Amino acid sequence: MEQIPLTIHSKGGAYRFTVEVARTPQEQERGLMFRQAVDPDKGMIIFPQPQPQIANVWMKNVLIPLDMIFIRANGTIARIEANAVPLSLDPVSSGEPVIAVLELAGGRTTELGIAANDKVDWPH
Description:
Layout: E1 3-10, E2 13-22, H1 25-30, E3 42-46, E4 56-57, E5 66-71, E6 77-84, E7 92-93, E8 100-105, H2 108-112, E9 119-121
Parallel strand pairs: 2-3
Antiparallel strand pairs: 1-2, 1-9, 3-8, 4-7, 5-6, 5-8
């Protein structure tokens, strides 16, 4: 899977990550399923798309908590679902049209002070 640099610009500073990009339907379906951990400076972009749309994500077969960051077309964070519950089949919605969902290790957004309306930059 392709890996790219990604930076989140927050009040506390610029936080850099290396993220996998789930572009194909198969990559998107698998996401971070069955992983035992996600390194603090790693993550995954799922559902990258040119046109914004409502995104619904679930945690089926995801064994660890994740922070889900829903990204608007202008690169700002629409909302964050912190510490999404492992193995849950309940959908987590973006609540508004977005172009991507960034998944990080559970708790990272709180730890770094990342919040709604912060800016996400990545090559896309």
